[in-house]
Amino acid sequence: MAVRIAVLAAFLALALASSSFAQSPAPAAAPSGPPNVTAVLEKGGQYTTFIRLMKSTQQDTQLNSQLNNSFGGNGYTVFAPTDNAFNSLKPGTLNSLTQQQQVSLVQGHILPQYYTFDSFETASNPVRTQASGKDGPFTLNITANTQNQLNVSSGVVVCTVNQQLSSPKPLAVYSVDKVLLPLEYFGAKAPAAAPAAAKAPKKGGSSDAASGPAGSDDSNSDSSGAVSARAVGWSVAGLAAVLGYLL
């Protein structure tokens, strides 16, 4: 009997302990800080050139600062070209750009709004980027294809969104397989205006120019000289006749 009571008491104690454990609150999750675009790209492992370009233009610092204050705002979306995307550029492409143009190149990969993969399907094209120029903001056209992939066009190149590197708001980062060269810098240049055609000389113009002003041709000069010579001759003859009469 005593053994049975002891077993029952032990069972009740175990039951109470289990109930207390089950009702204890789970430890609170540590609050996560604002996302860091550089950390996201470094974790991706194949965005060294883009990271270097962001650092040299100070766009990493600017974007991270904006992310610190965007939890209640629209957020940001970044299209990150892979190292292979940069390697496929024509040699000297980046070096041909000025410092300001390199800033615009990076900003042309950043959208001042947070987009999930699905929300791109309802985005209104063209989509504005962080970059702008004398003609206004640089824009992208983003469309979904039948394979449930996103195609992004800068007007010069079209690339495919391969994967999402970061999704929690306020930062979405997508990997792309080409550098989004802006139309403003790499678009086809307008053809130069053709030089004005030289006017054709008037028919017979060369002979007119050689002949000189009207009324000054040789025939008119000859006839005038002859008339003058005859007038002088008559005057001399008349004077001689008068003198002979007087004498």
Description:
There is one protein chain. With 247 residues, this protein is α+β, with helices and mostly antiparallel strands. It has a domain at 37-180: FAS1 domain (Roll), CATH 2.30.180. It is 42% helix and 17% strand. The chain is built from nine helices and seven strands; from the N terminus they run H-H-H-H-E-H-H-E-E-E-E-E-E-H-H-H. A seven-stranded mixed beta sheet has the order 2-1-7-6-5-4-3. A hairpin with a 4-residue loop joins strand 6 (158-166) and strand 7. The protein is globular.
Write the CATH fold name of the domain at 37-180. Answer: FAS1 domain
Question: Major sheet, described briefly?
Answer: 7 strands, mixed
Architecture per CATH nomenclature, i.e. the level-2 architecture of the domain at 37-180: Roll
Shape: globular
Q: What share of residues is helical?
A: 40-55%
Number of strands: 7
Query: What separation lies between the terminal Cα atoms?
Result: 201 Å
How much beta, percentage-wise?
15-25%
* Main β-sheet, spatial strand arrangement: 2-1-7-6-5-4-3
User: CATH homologous superfamily of the domain at 37-180 - what is it?
Assistant: FAS1 domain
Structure class: alpha+beta
Record the SSE blueprint.
Elements (H helix, E strand, L loop, with lengths): L1 H22 L13 H8 L3 H9 L2 H10 L7 E6 L1 H5 L11 H9 L2 E2 L15 E7 L2 E9 L5 E4 L4 E9 L4 E6 L6 H4 L18 H7 L6 H29 L1
Parallel strand pairs: 1-7
Antiparallel strand pairs: 1-2, 3-4, 4-5, 5-6, 6-7
